[in-house]
Amino acid sequence: MSSKSFAGGHPVEQYRWLRENAPVYWHDEPEGPGFWAVTGYDLVRQVSKQPEVYSMAKAAGRIHDFPPDELAFLLTMMLFMDPPKHSFHRRLVGGLFTPKRAALWRDSIRDAVGGILDEVCDRGECDLVGDVAGKLPSYVIAELVGIPRADGVRLYELTEIMHSALDTVSDEQRFAAMRDITGYAVQVRADKLAAPADDLASRLVAAEVDGRRLTEQEFTSFFLLLINAGGDTTRNLIGGAMVTLLRRPEQLARLRADDGTLMSTAVEELLRFQSPVTYMRRTAVADAELGDVRIAEGDKVVPYYGAANRDPAVFDRPDELLLDRTPNEHLAFGGGGPHFCLGAHFARIEASEMLGQLLRRFGDLELTGEPSWLASEFISGPTRVPVAYTASAPVLTA
């Protein structure tokens, strides 16, 4: 599946054909050896939970192979490590991302949402991605790591360049964006060493596991991961969720009238329906069987989360948006295993606060043009969602 297949979101019909006919399908590459596309729910979970067979530490997540210098750096990121090395790095920050610790940020996130909506309230029209959805995760991660909000927004723009499809951004442009972020991270580390504060970057600089601290390169890699992961899922979830709701006025009205009891299940359903991260490539490090297919050592294996999240063997009426769907064991944050999304609890809070305030304050919300989508087969979300509305003052909630 090329980036063109994802030009308007997930290729739902292609997913359906693959699940029904070849849930582990050999896909040729124009400039590569090919890969196994995995689309069944149970099979995606199997790949995700067996890092000893399907390694993250070979290819930095993408289907295509990076240039050697870029790949060498990317493989220093926690996301692209296997246990036990991955476990060491995750322990450094895992305690800061628990449901209890994330909940302590709800008031701050609520205030950030209110401020973002205040900025566009009187305009009567805006871009829901650039003016609203894109700012929130940038603000939150900036506060978490202890950098100015404006810098968080700029870093998010650089990550967009990194994630764009090969036919829209050159290797030089992508590598330059990565260098800008890593250069910024080196300066952040120096600042936090000189003047530590109560923020995540300072904790990373000082943290020790088994008597060892992060090197400069390890800190830089960690910082890049936080900026990437801290923005993509939430921005794409909120932007994609609003497109989904605006195209289903009855569902939007139902969520707008909610007294607070529907939002939690609605966020989970929108995560399932939107599936912001399309896939995360693995590499087989041993011969294996997946379904009824033989996987050879060295093969690329690509689990597609959006396809698994519409598997009718797991989800009743999978192509319908059911805001009260329960249970909802979606794979939007990964298929389980050691690489389950560290920031999942923050993403849920950010989405629920933004959707709640946006729908309460902005009446008559409607699309004024066709949304445009990110030119990427790796992450799925709109780049621009033009809307018009009648806005009201903020509604205070307990």
Report what the structure shows:
It is globular and about 60 Å long. Strands 1-2-8-5-3 form a five-stranded mixed sheet. It has a three-stranded antiparallel sheet with strand order 4-12-9. It has a two-stranded antiparallel ribbon with strand order 6-7. Helix content is 48%, strand content 12%. The protein has 16 helices and twelve strands. With 398 residues, the protein is of the alpha+beta class. It has helices at 12-21, 41-48, 68-74, 85-93, 99-103, 106-121, 128-133, 135-145, 149-163, 171-194, 200-206, 216-246, 249-256, 263-274, 305-308, 344-361, and strands at residues 24-29, 32-38, 54-55, 125-127, 282-284, 288-290, 293-295, 300-303, 362-367, 372-373, 382-384, 386-391. The model has no long low-confidence stretch (mean pLDDT 90). A hairpin with a 2-residue loop joins strand 1 and strand 2 (32-38).
Class from secondary-structure proportions: alpha+beta
Residue share in β-strands: 5-15%
Query: Largest sheet, described in full?
Result: 5 strands, mixed
Gyration radius from CA atoms, angstroms: 21 Å
Low-confidence stretches: none
Sequence of secondary-structure elements: HEEHEHHHHEHHHHHHHHEEEEHHEEEE
First-to-last CA distance = 46 Å
Rounded average pLDDT: 90
Query: How many helical stretches?
Result: 16
Spatial strand order of the main sheet: 1-2-8-5-3
Subunit organisation of the chains: single chain
Overall 3D geometry? globular
Give helix % range: 40-55%
> What's the count of strands?
12
Features:
398 residues; alpha+beta; 5-stranded mixed β-sheet; 3-stranded antiparallel β-sheet; 48% helix; 12% strand
